[in-house]
Amino acid sequence: MSIPSQTSKLFCINFLGVCNYPKVTEWKVPFPNEKPRGTKRPVTSGREPLKVVHYSDVHVDLLYEEGATANCSKPVCCR
Question: How many structural domains comprise the chain?
């Protein structure tokens, strides 16, 4: 990791908490063109809908305290 790099700046703020946040790098996401004319939704199968549960950011925080603030300015978990 080189010192003036974006990675070193993110490391410093996230793990040491003594640096300023680096400038956000802007980038564009290419989106496809509008859907072609004449396309229609597929006919439903009539079967029971599939139920899905999506868990995200699941981890055990051994330092969690009940009633901790939910309004946090840090990029990692607040306690």
Answer: 1
Give the DSSP per-residue string, 47-76: SPPPP-----S----TT--TT--S---SSS
Please provide the DSSP assignment of 10-48 as one string.
HHIIIII--SPPPPPPP-----PPPPPTT--PPPP--SP
pTM for this model (two decimals): 0.34
Does residue 35 sit within a domain? Answer: no
Res. 52: pLDDT tops 90: yes
- 14 part of a folded domain: yes
